Amino acid sequence: MKTATLVADLVTEFKTNGRIVIVGASLAGLRAAEALRDEGFNGKLTIIGDEKHEPYDRPPLSKQVLKGWVRADHTLLPRTRKVDAEWQLGVAATSLDRSSKQVRLANGDQVPFDRLLIATGTRARPWFNPKEAALEGVITLRTSDEAAQLQAALAAKPGRVLIVGAGFIGSEIASVCRDLGLAVTVAERAEAPLVGALGGVIGDIAAELQRDHGVDLRTGISVEALEGDAKGHVRRARLSDGTMLDVDVVVASLGSIRNTEWLEGAGLATGRWGVACDAGCRVFDVNGVVTDSIFVAGDIARAPHVLYEYQFLALEHWDNAVFGGRVAAHNMVSLESDRRPHLPLPAFWSGQFGVNIKGVGVGPFADEIVITQGSVKERRFAAAYGRRGRIVAAVTFNHGKWLEYYGAMIERSAPFPPPPPGYDQVGDMKPMPARFPLPGVPTGLPDVVLTGHDPIDRGAEYRPQKR
Amino acid sequence: MRIVIDLNRCQGYAQCVPLAPTVLKLNGEEALTYDPNPDDSLRQQVLRAAASCPVQAILVERLDEKREKS
């Protein structure tokens, strides 16, 4: 018998009788499970999730749900097919034993696997002071339970809401607060909202947008302490400029933490920026050797990207979870010659203050920005980001139809500034510094991060741009 | 029923909105917002809205339908 036939038989055998475990029951885990079945995997499939809910969509939580339109438990994700899996929900994975190929769960169970997909994602970064974090009314937003809690707090008509951190989530929450007619203060350590992801030029526009909608926006300000009343409910906040603020709800929107702790000791390339993998979602071990049976997808994955000098890109985006999950699933059940890369062009959206903000590429990679179309004054415009004369990202405010045009140019590293399409052009297309913040401002961390060339976390740190 | 809209793909044409106005809404000029788990009684409306999308950004779960047929 030829070796090739033997190997093909092995794949058939694996697809029939293999055991696949997916740790993480959110968007990436679900889409991977569906793709595995689509690919003809008929073996045993186990899906483990630490939340008790079946897979649900998170983007609505900071918008429709907070507004009170959609219930927090009504964002369940549609299935593209039946997955016929064993679901272990409400129980976290606590460790991974690679030699015996088992995942240990919080309830003591051991789940054996032939192939493993890591999709444990991120969680909200908690308020830094645990005593203050425990005060009633101090809330983070990541899960549907947290969204239910925050929605109830907003519906109770608090006197003032304080939002700490003006990234996308913080800004979206502020927008909902204004829609609900609530007084809201946003405290941001950086010079403007959204600077981590979009830089200072766009940040200034976002700041104006917030103030025009009645947000009490305070930039260059951090929140140093929270105080509760006798019942343990938060009532006051002390800002870094000495101001004392009366507040009834505090939302800590300080970015995310990757759920890698359960992998400690497993000898994989894990750390602050997630789990390093190759372009085919195969996880590296601590020595930079790629594993055969462990894959990763979604917010927790970081992989080298051809468009960005092969730096490891960590990407907390919705479609990265969808496509990453599918590619990982495909590669888990395919032979080498059939494997595919997951090389996404990063793309995101954010609805806030009646404006649809969309983007493609990696903004923080850029040194310059140019407004290419529309009118900043009317908040309908497109802007392109460039690095050393090449376009690397683009953002639109209520101009989303043009994003594809810029995306195609980013994909082929076209020259910057780009030729604007023949419509709605800006007269004076003048590149200016994009003004991304230096690292070290916690809330300045974007949800797309280039994490260096080292698969091992030792060197995987955000690299400041040379100025 | 369950739906999800790929808002990266959505270009804000908003053709879907009048076809299922209690499920899909515009927030401002082009930011689409929606009810991910609308009542089953709205299924026909939602299916028409999904079919009308020029970029096919609306994913509707069809499992229930299949169950009914089989």
Compact overview of the structure:
The complex is a heterodimer of chains A (467) and B (70). By secondary structure, chain A is an alpha/beta fold. Chain A is 22% helix and 29% strand.
List the helices and strands and how they pair.
The complex is a heterodimer of chains A (467) and B (70).
Chain A: H1 3-17, E1 19-23, H2 27-38, E2 44-49, H3 64-67, E3 86-89, E4 93-97, E5 102-105, E6 110-112, E7 115-118, E8 122-124, H4 130-133, E9 138-139, H5 144-155, E10 161-164, H6 168-179, E11 184-188, H7 195-212, E12 216-219, E13 223-228, E14 234-239, E15 244-246, E16 249-252, E17 256-258, E18 270-271, E19 274-276, E20 282-284, E21 290-296, E22 301-304, E23 312-315, H8 318-332, E24 347-352, E25 355-361, E26 368-375, E27 380-387, E28 390-397, H9 403-411, E29 432-433, E30 448-450
Parallel strand pairs in A: 1-2, 1-7, 2-3, 7-21, 9-16, 10-11, 10-16, 11-12, 19-22
Antiparallel strand pairs in A: 4-5, 5-6, 8-17, 13-14, 14-15, 18-19, 20-21, 22-23, 23-30, 24-25, 25-28, 26-27, 26-29, 27-28
Chain B: E1 3-5, E2 24-27, E3 31-34, H1 43-52, E4 58-60, H2 63-69
Antiparallel strand pairs in B: 1-4, 2-3
Would you mind describing this structure in some detail?
The complex is a heterodimer of chains A (467) and B (70). Chain A has 467 residues and is α/β, with parallel strands linked by helices. Chain A is 22% helix and 29% strand. Chain A contains 9 helices and 30 strands. Chain A has helices spanning 3-17, 27-38, 64-67, 130-133, 144-155, 168-179, 195-212, 318-332, 403-411, and strands at residues 19-23, 44-49, 86-89, 93-97, 102-105, 110-112, 115-118, 122-124, 138-139, 161-164, 184-188, 216-219, 223-228, 234-239, 244-246, 249-252, 256-258, 270-271, 274-276, 282-284, 290-296, 301-304, 312-315, 347-352, 355-361, 368-375, 380-387, 390-397, 432-433, 448-450. In chain A, a hairpin with a 5-residue loop joins strand 20 (282-284) and strand 21 (290-296). In chain A, helix 2 (27-38) runs parallel beside helix 8 (318-332). Mean pLDDT of chain A is 94; it is low at 459-463. Chain B is an alpha+beta fold. Helix content of chain B is 24%, strand content 20%. Chain B has 2 helices and 4 strands; from the N terminus they run E-E-E-H-E-H. In chain B, the strands form 2 sheets. A two-stranded antiparallel sheet of chain B has the order 1-4. In chain B, strands 2-3 form a two-stranded antiparallel sheet. Chain B is globular. The mean pLDDT of chain B is 91. Classes of the chains: A alpha/beta (467), B alpha+beta (70). Chains A and B meet through strand 24 and strand 25 of A and strand 3 of B.
